[in-house]
Each structure stands twice: as C-alpha cells, then as structure tokens.
C-alpha cells in the first residue's frame, strides 16, 4: 500500500511502508550502511535529471557541474562521465576534479580569493581560470611566466543587472565576485598585453531560482553583455559561461522550474550567439539542480519526548550534518524541509512533532511542528531534497558528534 507523498518526495519509490532508495528499502539500506546518520544519493535520479536537461535544452548547450553543491568524490566521478565540464571553487575541489576522467581543459576554477598555490596548481594542470579581479590576473600572469606556460583564462564579469527572485544573489551591484562590467574593457586590454590565453566570459548572477522568466531574462542580458564586451577582447570569444541558478522546490507552494520555457528562451539566445559568434561554446553551470533532489539525509529517533503537550522526536542527526534543513544556512524565515518517517509511509496514525538533534542548542531543529507518521525510538527520519549543500555545508565539528556517512546508491 502506498500513501500519497508530498511533491518533493515523489522521485523516490515507496514499497509497503518504506521508502526505496536505489534498489533497497530504507531499513535495509540503513543496515548496509552500518550506522546512522547518513546521506544517500541515488545515481538513477541524477542520470534522469541530466537526461531531462539535455532533452529540454537546445543542442549545443554544454552542461557543467558546479561541484561545491556536492563534492563527494564518488559522486563527482560519476558526474564527470555525464556532463561536459566541472566547475571548482578551491584547490581542494580542483584536486577532486583532476582525479576524475575529465580532461583538465574541461575544468574551470572560479572564486574571489585564490591563493598563489591554487593558481600555480591550476596553471600547471591547464585548467581554465575565471579571473575575478585585475590583481588576480597579474598574479596569474606571474605564475604562468614562472612555469613557462600560457594560462588559460576567462573573465568573470559582475554584470550591471541582477537575477531577480534568486535565493542568493551573486551579481549586480557591488560585490566580491567578478570584475565590474564597466571595468572589463580596460582589463581586457591589459589581458592582451600580458599574453594570457583568453577564452571568454563567465557571468553568474545567482542561485536557487524557480522563476524561469527571470532566469531567461538574465541569460538574454548575459549574452548581450558578453557580445558587447567581446568586441574589445584580445581574441575571439570561444566560451561563454552564463551561470545557472536553476532552483529546486523545498517548501510547500513552491513549483518546479519550467524547463520547457527555459529551453525555448535558451534556443533563442543560442541562435543569437551563433549568428554573432559561431565558434563560441555556450555553457550552463549547475550545482543544486543536478543533485539536490537525488539525495536524502537519514537519522534515527533516539527518543520520543513529550514536553508540556508538545512531542519532540530526538534523533542522532541534526544541524551539524545538515545545516540547511535546520534553517541556519541563509534562510531568513525558517521553513521546514520535506521530512517524513521513512519506514512508516503507508498510513497509520499521525501526529504533529518537532524533530530535533542531539546538540545543546535550540537551533538544532530538523522539523518544527510538522505532521508525520507517529514514530518512536528506532524509527528512521528522512529529510528530502538533501543532495546539495548538505554535509559539506555543515559545521561537522560542532559538539564533537560522529560524522555522517555518505553513500551513492
Ligand atoms: C555556487 C555556484 C554555482 C552553483 O550554484 P547552484 O545554485 O548550486 O546551481 C555555480 N557557479 C558559481 C560561480 C557558483 O559560485
């Protein structure tokens, strides 16, 4: 018997009472993993997601994985075989990406504070550096001279527009990311003098966006801006990375992104770009959209406690593994992630509970007065939409509890 699942959970199968992850029922998976808490990421779901994107997007658009969304090495290795490139944001991520089968030329490195050691590693490996400031460009040139290599660079532009309705804005206005659009022409002149290998532009405006029209507008403006700036570049535009920002629904009332609409508007941009600059590769870089819905976080109920009429499920997992679900990763008003009792999905009595972790802080909250199946010690709590910005974005050392495990199934 199968109970209706609330929207974000529908991508997983349910058998009898239990959530199925990959081929296994949740309690069996928990047994295999050996202990809770753990994250499980479903390969099949990631494959489907990439296939759906390829289907919806115009031919020729290249897909990159922004690995800060989920840097688990096994997942990054799998992703390397599915996408056209990987975007990294630190020397550590660069090392993981270089360990995959992907050619180094398909790796790009962005981030406003790259050390000389990181630049040296990137130049030596032949990865693309997204230049974030004039000073950084000078440092890249010095590194290249020292190594006798010509660094491959793209200029990250901080545009004079923003991506509206984003969960997080990373472009438009003043900020630490990229070079302000009006300063780019002068920087391009200097880039030519330095003899760097110019590939193109990187324009990333924001994250977690569910409004296809807003994304389409930012993409159109990005193409326009890139073509205008390209006229002043020392070499033809070979690469244009227009970011991504594709969001996933987390909360009641949120709807999945309209991929069809995005595909149509991008086809238009692709045609414009092809007409003006036929040899330019158009790249989308996505993190969350590729992996968030493929992942769950699983912890076990240690105790069911009643305090002044309210029920608390106290679990072995919490914000130290999953800061985002606790509401402390950039949320202004805390909302519940989709949470369920993963081994009691087929009806039975229900109650309103708060799911909390073991930490000595009231911030350690995974669900605040949410209705779910009535549970007790030993039951498994599942937090859905947990494949992105989960474990690696959480303060694992806080209070010294054991680390969460991660499995790719
Ligand atoms: C974080 C980041 C991404 C990924 O963002 P998502 O919202 O996870 O898709 C892509 N590009 C850059 C430059 C980033 O900093």
Automatic annotation (TrEMBL):
Residues 44-292 form the Orn/DAP/Arg decarboxylase 2 N-terminal domain. The keyword Transport does not apply. It holds the Pfam family Orn_Arg_deC_N. Keywords: Pyridoxal phosphate. Gene3D superfamilies: Alanine racemase, Lyase, Ornithine Decarboxylase, Chain A, domain 1. Its cofactor is pyridoxal 5'-phosphate. PROSITE patterns: ODR_DC_2_2. InterPro entries: Ala_racemase/Decarboxylase_C, DCO2ase_PEP1, De-COase2_CS, De-COase2_N, Orn/DAP/Arg_de-COase, PLP-binding_barrel. The keyword Amino-acid biosynthesis does not apply. PANTHER family: DIAMINOPIMELATE DECARBOXYLASE, GROUP IV DECARBOXYLASE. This is Pyridoxal-dependent decarboxylase, exosortase A system-associated. It comes from Janthinobacterium fluminis.
């Amino acid at each position: 018997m199968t109970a209706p699942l609330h929207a974000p959970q529908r991508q997983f199968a349910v058998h009898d009472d239990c959530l199925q992850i990959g081929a296994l029922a949740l309690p069996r998976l928990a047994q295999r993993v050996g202990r809770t808490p753990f994250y499980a990421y479903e390969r099949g779901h990631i494959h489907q997601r990439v296939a759906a994107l390829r289907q919806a997007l115009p031919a020729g658009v290249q897909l990159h994985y922004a690995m800060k969304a989920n840097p688990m090495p096994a997942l990054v290795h799998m992703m390397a075989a599915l996408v056209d490139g990987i975007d990294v944001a630190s020397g550590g991520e660069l090392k993981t990406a270089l360990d995959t089968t992907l050619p180094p030329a398909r790796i790009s490195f962005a981030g406003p504070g790259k050390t000389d050691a990181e630049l040296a590693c990137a130049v030596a490996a032949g990865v693309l550096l997204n230049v974030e400031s004039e000073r950084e460009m000078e440092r890249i040139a010095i590194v290249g001279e020292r190594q006798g290599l010509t660094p491959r660079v793209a200029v990250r532009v901080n545009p004079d527009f923003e991506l509206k309705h984003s969960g997080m804005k990373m472009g438009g206005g003043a900020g630490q990311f990229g070079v302000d659009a009006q300063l780019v022409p002068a920087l391009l002149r200097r880039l030519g003098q330095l003899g760097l290998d110019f590939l193109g532009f990187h324009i990333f405006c924001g994250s977690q966006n569910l409004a296809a029209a807003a994304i389409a507008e930012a993409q159109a403006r990005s193409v326009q801006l890139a073509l205008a700036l390209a006229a002043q570049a020392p070499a033809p535009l070979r690469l244009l990375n227009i970011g991504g920002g594709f969001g996933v629904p987390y909360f009641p009332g949120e709807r999945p992104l309209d991929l069809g609409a995005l595909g149509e508007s991008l086809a238009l941009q692709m045609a414009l770009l092809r007409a003006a600059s036929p040899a330019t590769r158009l790249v989308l870089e996505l993190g969350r959209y590729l992996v968030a819905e493929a992942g769950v976080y699983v912890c076990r109920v240690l105790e069911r406690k009643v305090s002044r009429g309210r029920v608390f499920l106290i679990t072995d997992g919490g914000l130290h593994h999953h800061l985002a679900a606790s509401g402390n990763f950039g949320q202004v008003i805390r909302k519940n992630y989709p949470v369920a009792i993963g081994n009691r999905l087929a009806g039975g009595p229900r109650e309103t509970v708060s799911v909390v972790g073991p930490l000595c802080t009231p911030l350690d909250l995974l669900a605040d007065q949410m209705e779910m199946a009535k549970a007790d010690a030993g039951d498994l709590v599942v937090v859905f939409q947990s494949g992105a910005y989960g474990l690696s974005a959480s303060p694992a050392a806080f209070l010294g509890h054991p680390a969460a495990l991660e499995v790719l199934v």
